[in-house]
Write a structure and sequence with these properties.
The chain is an alpha/beta fold and 299 residues long. The protein contains 9 helices and 8 strands. It has a single domain, classed as Rossmann fold (3-Layer(aba) Sandwich).
Length: 299
């Protein structure tokens, strides 16, 4: 049974849900996401600093209070068309506080101004920048939510293809890994998902992919060769249209020999973790932080 606070958030989001996002200017959509994310605040004492990470804008978000080089490389959600490191600063701060690891949150370029592969290039550039700063790959955990969860896998695939050392582990929250939207829950969970709409998925996928095949591995990592990826933790709510994306991705990772844990949160919504004040979010974020701590090498 979810908390009353979670039920209240679901009701609020359902009132804001737009059946056809194509009817709105992209800037208005971006403002709407920014406004929604502003309900959560970074932890007290959290330091936030702009940085150029290998040609890519990013934010250092640090609530750890230590000088370790260990880093969470975070990739925000927003359908590749919305969101920023700033909109997700509160969530990044919560992860830093709970894991006691600093976060580099990447402001990758967005579609439609900068479609695929801009986001993948920016995320990979930020990762390589960390390596050049003397941060060991064994001291990096990469992760993201929604589109950022899909981008987490795409970035690792890009790095693997170029022969770069991979991060020590990865986590993905409600990852969008099939932009072709072939999962059953795109249909079966449409009525209970308070955030995502089918029209919105297709619209954002078209803006990001352009003329590229939606099943291209760096666009939809579900269709990629996943062999050799590091351990992965996936969190997803059971009341979201992308539930099947997480289930199928976990299955594909396991078939590829990757250590993958899938945790489904009953009756919860897409990326509920970002509403950091919810008791369910605190519990889920503590689990992610414990996963990060169990894999990362401090130093």
């Amino acid at each position: 049974m979810i908390s009353q606070d979670a039920k209240n958030v679901i009701a609020f989001m359902a009132k804001m849900k737009v059946p056809d996002i194509r009817e709105l200017p992209i800037e208005l959509c971006r403002k709407g996401l920014a406004d929604m994310m502003s309900f959560s605040m970074p932890p007290a004492g959290c330091k936030i600093e702009k940085v150029n990470a290998g040609g890519t804008d990013a934010l250092w978000v640090d609530a750890s209070g230590n000088d370790d080089k260990a880093t969470i490389l975070y990739l925000h959600g927003g359908g590749y068309t919305m969101g920023s490191a700033q909109t997700h600063a509160a969530f990044a701060g919560a992860l830093s506080d709970l894991s006691q690891v600093r976060v580099l949150s990447v402001d990758y370029r967005l579609a439609p101004e900068d479609p695929h592969p801009a986001a993948v290039k920016d995320a990979a550039a930020a990762y390589r920048w960390l390596l050049k700063q003397g941060v060991s790959a064994k001291s990096i955990v990469i992760g993201g939510d929604s589109a950022g969860g899909g981008l987490t896998f795409a970035t690792m695939l890009e790095l693997k293809g170029k022969g770069d050392p991979l991060p020590e582990a990865a986590f993905a929250i409600s990852p969008w890994v099939d932009l072709a939207a072939t999962g059953e829950t795109v249909v079966t969970k449409a009525e209970v998902d308070p955030i995502i709409s089918e029209a919105g998925l297709y619209y954002m996928a078209s803006l990001y992919a352009g003329d590229v095949d939606l099943r291209s591995p760096l666009i939809s990592p579900l269709y990629a060769d996943l062999n050799g990826l590091p351990p992965v933790l996936i969190h997803v709510g059971t009341n979201e249209m992308l539930l099947d994306d997480s289930r199928r991705m976990a299955g594909a990772l396991r078939r590829a020999g990757v250590d993958c844990v899938l945790k489904e949160w009953k009756d919860l919504f897409h990326v509920f973790h970002a509403v950091t004040g919810l008791s369910e979010a605190r519990k889920a974020n503590k689990e992610i932080a414990a996963f990060i701590r169990s894999h990362i090498c401090k130093g």
